[in-house]
User: Fold these one by one.
Assistant:
Number 1:
Amino acid sequence: MSTLGIALIGAGKMGTDHARRIGRTVGGARVAAVADPDGDRAKEVTAGLDGASAHTDAAAAIAAPGVQAVLIASPGPAHEEAIGLALERGLPVLCEKPMTPDTAGALRVMEAEQRLGRRLVQVGFMRRYDAEYEELKGLLDAGGIGRPLFLHCRHRNAVSLPFFTSDSLINDSLVHEVDATRWLLGEEIAAVSVFSPPPTSAAPPELHDPRFVLMETSGGVLVDVEVFVNCGFGYEVRCEAVGESGSASIGEPRAMTVRRAGARSGAIPQDFTVRFADAYDRQLRRWVAAAARGGVAGPGAWDGYAAAAVCEAGIAAGRSGVRTPVELVERPALYR
Ligand code: ISE
């Protein structure tokens, strides 16, 4: 079987996790090159990988021999440049979210793809590959709880990463609920409001954490999200959909329950790479299969753009305290 040569851009937490996944749980692919501004990190990831080269520069990794597809796991502001380099070479891309941290960059990505005339960018909205999310989507699509009225969401991290700011809480964390809402309901998000209780003492000074976000969809569904990235106790992503004839919840504790010494307990995962491990595997498997045929199959640049527009409105709403409408450009034909 031929193996797809992948250039991995970014050797941080997510990049390292993807490198481990390629070859171990995802077949048909190999890491051909790794780039990270910290060359030692790039070398650490390539150590033990047969024939993989290490670089400090994305362009060099993407141009390395044997590269047929590009997996981008660098910080959001570096995504646009790496996507551009991949598109110049006509290579399929899987780019971690957010595709770009702003709509201007997202529009440029869509323009580049439209110039090529085909879709080569997939965005790493991995919740679409999670078994529980897929089940909820199936139920909603089948009308199993009637017309949806509300989504009640909780997005909690045990502790935020060191570089996290109030903008990251929207662009890196809330962005998942933004995409999940659009995908689950098949509607765009029309307006965002952001409420801020007094921050937890566990958060660093520049981070407003937690936040309560209210999104209104084009069809009038109300979606509330608690985003709390320093909750301390673990990683928790929950969603309850309420419809005219029922409700459905996902993300409830799945661990073994232990009853002992007058108490009932069960472990809570501490991290998203654990909670969504299967979803990451499935996402990568399907992307590798599509990339081997020269294309992509999952959420694309339009989804990345629409999410960026909602996050941009969310950041503005967080600063002003005012309900902020989301403005979208007309959906180009390539994404219909
Ligand atoms: C992280 O980048 C993710 O994508 C996780 O899913 C999210 O829960 C976390 O808040 C982000 O920092």
Note: The CA atoms of residues 110 and 131 lie 29 Å apart.
Number 2:
Amino acid sequence: MKKHFLSTEDWSQQALQDLLNDASYLKQHPLQNHLAGKSIALLFLNPSMRTRTSFELGMQQLGGMAIVLQPGQDAWGIEFEPGVVMDGAPEEHIKEVAGVLSSYVDMIAIRAFPAFQDWSVDRLDHKIKGLAAHASVPVINMETIVHPCQELALMMTIQKHLKTVKRKKFLLTWTYHPKPLNTAVANSGLLISSKFGMDVTLLCPNEHYLLDAHYLAAAKAQCEAHAATFTVTHDIEAAYTGADFVYAKSWGALPFYGNVQAEFEQRKNYQHFIVDGSKMAMTNQAKFSHCLPLRRNIKATDEVMDADYCVALEEAENRLHVQKALMMHLMGQQLKTEE
Ligand code: CP
């Protein structure tokens, strides 16, 4: 059976740790030739800076080739629904896209954000699942309703700074943003911190900003398996106090999904959730990070972003190293680390 990287939920902690170990080696020894003759197609249905650059460059640094396609812009738009009469904008079906690309390249990666209309539909993550079902090569998630590559980069960064991560306090804090954003990175923050046994705290303004029940339950179960704690709070001071690592993200309130104005009426009241120096002072000398892009002085202040404790750039760099390790693993390539 072909192996995909759709969600870290499908991978064991040890398998993820193996990738992180390889990524650390690749960070020190970036130029390798393990993927010579291999190729990957990168399908971007949404914009990107970090993901596109790190995958393209990473493949090149391993001797392989990456081909970027933006369906609906420089490639034909794709229909993902099965059995529909295709009389709309998309020109071809995911069945043909997956089949054709599988005959050309060795891996396919996709970024497919939710449609932001109906969460009961978007939460099924049907676009990447459709691609994975019809591709005969490994499929990589470059962000859908989770962002597993970001998770690896985050955990690589946490491990570098905290050394032992088990039972350390990981705070995922909601922040204000002018638009209702995807929950993917927030879902992923819960998944990876709990997978590695951290004491996880989710801080959000009120019950409307709780993440999807699936991710709350998954995080709670993983924390319990490690005898770690899983806490949901709306109390800023309690959340920050004693935190070892602060991770910020904004997301839209799921009960108002698809209704931007109604959601804004909620969100506009919570601009004080911004990460600032006074909140960070309540922590246990925590590091701060964010997946980026980040609006300064909206999500976090200049003071926080420019502080020594901000490791967001390091996390972004680690995207390159973890994705190289991942692509090598999916291609069955082992690092030759003896020197
Ligand atoms: N964090 C992240 O995925 O960045 P991009 O949206 O720029 O790819």
Note: The mean pLDDT is 97.
